[in-house]
Amino acid sequence: MLSGAVVTYFNETAPKELRGAMASSYQVGLVCGICVSTCVNLAAKDMTDSGAYRISIGIQFLWVLILAIGIYISPETPRWYVSQGRHDEAADALSSFLGPDPTSSRVQMDLSELIDSYNKEHSGAWGDCFTGGLGRGSNLRRTMLGLMIQLGQQITGINFMFYYGTTFFLQTEMPHPFILVIGITIVNAGFCLVSFWTIENVGRRPLLIWGAASMAFFQLIVVSLFPNII
Predict the structure, then answer these.
(1) d(Cα 214, Cα 138) in Å, to the nearest integer?
(2) Which one of 99, 139, 147, 175 has the fewest CB atoms closer than 10 angstroms to its CB?
(3) Residue 213: what are its φ and ψ, rounded to 5°?
């Protein structure tokens, strides 16, 4: 539930000129957290008592506490206030995110655009997401593109490497399995950091195309070099 809400929260609160970069920060935080967790696992791997797993699990409570406090003090999104017909509170929320006074022209212009956008989006029904065939500009095509991109991201198997990579490398007798997984997470985090700049300066579509092509290329290399592990 939280994973689904975070990106929506960014999209509904970030200034237009920073929306892409701020949405990317969600993935950056995710992969950096995975990188830190693999380092903790490396530090605890030689323990022979219950600390080998208690430390890894226990440290997570610290981040949960920080997250819970952060969620509690975070303001509601202007879009949600608009959906409830509470336009004055939506202006206050916009002011807290953008900086200017609620009565300023910048806030009032954004509020007017938000109200118009909300009214247009709710003039149809959920079923409209699956109408129009697969032709250019159809709703069904947009829906399928979104679903297939997300599916493609997961079906690459990267989450398997994050969560079970150490066990996998141990079973295949690869040297330094913990270090290998840390290396994978560092590469992932590094390229996510690069996306802060590229997503606004290169564009979404080129990143998707070249990112997918690069992943396919390097996966073929892995299969070619290590045929005994598949």
Answers:
(1) 29
(2) 175
(3) -65, -40
